[in-house]
């Protein structure tokens, strides 16, 4: 069976001036043959020889073979560069003459020419090869990482109700839960995170924050800078609404309270009924 988007070892069954026809067997029928253009035919090849090729569709939507190697095959995940953006989507350079379409509906964030995106290759409803940034179902789960391991991965999708989806090592499925999202995290960012949990199916939960006892000092330093940006007077205390605290500091209420406690203990701030002031 000829498989679109995959590498296959096929047999030369017929020679023509413009190339050779390949099939799974020497007796392959016309419907089960594919053309390998002349410029792609290995020198010295003859009928009966096997050739390893990749199958895709040309500009006329015909299945065609090539001995060139694409950067990705169907089902694989990797980084591809955006060569141009058009009305129908973005085109990606994947190592072949005909560039690969990344439709708008398969983009998890707006892409621009020159960007490098994490993508997977699939066969669309029209039996054409295309790319998607929605790589969740193409990622693996058995990473071997354990709780508290530090990992690196690419953010490929963000959902407000769930969090940021990450491809650890651009290969394994992971999630930074919504409650763990802090600061500016965007699709395409490469993040360093701590494994906060491993699910039964092997997928990872991540945290971009360290353990509480390590994080307090960093949060305290951050809060000190924030108070400074308010000219030394933060117009609320740890009794403020949690949403106000998160909006202004990027911390949860508990984290804010711990940071305030750290600064108070070190004598760097003074707490007033409605504000926190830097100690003179």
Could you name the key traits of this structure?
mainly beta; five-stranded antiparallel sheet; 18 strands; about 15% helix
Short description:
This protein has helices spanning 212-229, 242-249, 253-265; strands at 7-16, 19-23, 34-37, 50-57, 63-66, 77-86, 89-93, 100-103, 116-123, 129-132, 150-159, 163-168, 172-177, 190-198, 204-207, 233-234, 269-272, 275-278. The chain is 14% helix and 38% strand.
Describe this protein's structure.
By secondary structure, the chain is mainly beta. It has helices at residues 212-229, 242-249, 253-265, and strands at residues 7-16, 19-23, 34-37, 50-57, 63-66, 77-86, 89-93, 100-103, 116-123, 129-132, 150-159, 163-168, 172-177, 190-198, 204-207, 233-234, 269-272, 275-278. It contains 3 helices and 18 strands. The strands form 4 sheets. The protein has a 5-stranded antiparallel beta sheet, with no helix packed on it. A 5-stranded antiparallel beta sheet has the order 8-7-6-9-10, with no helix packed on it. The chain starts with 6 loop residues before the first strand and ends with a strand. The model has no long low-confidence stretch (mean pLDDT 89).
